[in-house]
Amino acid sequence: MLVLLAFIIVFHITSAALLFIATLDNAWWVGEGFYADVWKICINSTNCTEISDAFLDYSTMQAVQATMILSTILCCIAFLIFLLQLFRLKQGERFVLTSIIQLLSCLSVVIAASIYTDRRQELHSQNQNFYALTSEGTYGYSFILAWVAFAFTFISGLMYLILRKRK
Questions:
Q1: Rounded-to-integer distance, Cα 121 and Cα 57, Å
Q2: Over 70: is that where the pLDDT of 146 sits?
Q3: What is the CATH number of the domain that holds 70?
């Protein structure tokens, strides 16, 4: 049981780390000489422009930013509640509250990644003088980490739902 508990804790911490990296790092859309994320766009690592309300579809990027932050916060809250429930639940009870919060984190990250996937073309091609260089690129590792974090938080949420407190 101790090995299972250690695996669950490491798996959850890994999920949270993936969410932090995906939210904060500048590699959602990358190409030759530029990289972009949900916060800013940099060309040649020197010319960085923050995404602000000057962009036509700023509300969409705000939705991506908000849901990624929400997923990270919910994942951390789920971990803290798991630790509290670990010592407070009676034997045989399930970690339902932890599971619900972790599945909400999963839902938030899939919403953010889906919005970014759907709107990427419009988000990176509206300002012709700045985004002309960024139209040819690929999804970066932070974007991929967001999808991996989705899978991890989903699996973690299901584990908590199935898991019963045993001796």
A1: 11
A2: yes
A3: 1.20.140.150
Question: Which of 67-71, 97-101, 115-119, 154-158 comes out lowest in average pLDDT?
Answer: 115-119
Residue 112: domain span: 2-162
Is 91:165 a contact under the CB 8 Å cutoff? yes
Phi/psi of residue 40, nearest 5 degrees: -155, 170
Examine the pLDDT at 128 and tell me if it is beyond 90: no
Query: Cα(139)–Cα(76) distance, rounded to whole angstroms?
Result: 26
Kindly give, in sequence order, each residue whose CB lies less than 8 Å from that of residue 80, ignoring residues fewer than 6 positions away.
none
> How many Å apart are CA 123 and CA 100, to the nearest integer?
32
pTM of the model: 0.85
Overall domain count for the chain = 1
